Amino acid sequence: NNCLGELYMLSRFEINKDIKKRGQSMYSPHIHSYCELFYLLKGHCDFLLGDRTFSLIEGTIILIPPNTLHKTTYAHNELCERINIEFTYDYVSNLDKCFGNLWINTNAFSNFIYITPECREAINAQLDNLINETHIKDIFSDYLIKIYFESLILQLIRIREEPSVFTINNNTIIVDKSIKKALQYIDNYYYENITLTQIADMLGLNPSYFSNKFKTINGIGFKEYLNMIRIRHAEQLLIETNFDITSIALQCGFESSNYFGDSFKKIHHTSPTQFRK
Predict the structure, then answer these.
(1) Confidence bin at 243 (pLDDT 50/70/90)
(2) 118 exposed, middle or buried (CB, 10 Å; 0-12, 13-18, 19+)?
(3) DSSP, residue by residue, 164-209
(4) Global pTM?
């Protein structure tokens, strides 16, 4: 039971470098089954990770483990440049063999790493190598991508362990305690018949007030969030087990396989059966 899990989905490595417009934001937080590296090259943004929001400055990198809720909101008064890498665990599997899964999880994932200006040239050069290699399609390219990427991860961990490195932990903004408690309850009891009114009563809040507060803080409605968490667990069962679709739907808290299928397709744009294949 590690944060990366043992989900060996189809191999994936995609790297994108783009500019975000002033005030651009994801519509709502999201999760996915693969890992992600986010690097803010220029500008500022707010970054929601799980139930916490961080204010990021340029030069900040975060490695996001699978099935972790996250969202970016970019500053209103400037253009922001970022690099985003989506990858499956096989692209760091050699590090796992050398250093162990616990070491990788502890030192790489869910840690914000600030790259000082004097270190950025070397890090940016490694990223340029990765971008260039993804455009080369020969028998060597995929192997070289893995080598470059694992080298990058080790370099980031080395930077993080330097005692002089700036951390942004003091800039953490903890969300409203009642909403944090609600998120934790959903994460723990997603498989039960959870309702908005039930959670509101547990917190001693008016259901309408709780609903508005939940959406304002999380950028997503209560039911949408609940379904997203349930589908995250359903993904694991679809990949790791041979349970039929109805059984998975019920185990994850959906009232029927049809509702599960509709909710799953809304997020993944494919059916649970096709996802499993």
Answers:
(1) very high
(2) exposed
(3) T----GGG-EEPPHHHHHHHHHHHHHTTS---HHHHHHHHT--HHH
(4) 0.60
